Amino acid sequence: MRKIFTCIVAFFVIAVSVLKAQTAIPGADRLDVYLPLIKGKKVGIFANQTSIVGKTHLVDTLRKLGVKISVIFGPEHGFRGTADAGEKVANYVDKETGIQVVSLYGSKRYPSAEDLKDVDVMIFDLQDVGCRFYTYINSMQDFLETALIHHKPLLLLDRPNPNGFYVDGPVLDLKYKSGVGKQPIPIVYGLTMGEYAMMLLGEKWLSKEANEVNAYNITTKPTTDTPFHFMVIKCKDYTHNTKYELPVKPSPNLPNIQSIYLYPSTCFFEGTVLSEGRGTTKPFQVFGHPSYPKTLYSFTPNPNEGAKSSKLYGQQCYGWDLSGPVDDVLAKTGTQIQLKWLIEAYKLFPDKNNFFLLPKSGKMEESFFNKLAGNNDLWQQIKAGKSEAEIRKSWEPKLSEYKLIRKKYLLYDDFAPINRKLNPIR
Question: Can you give the pTM of this predicted structure?
Answer without folding.
Answer: 0.88
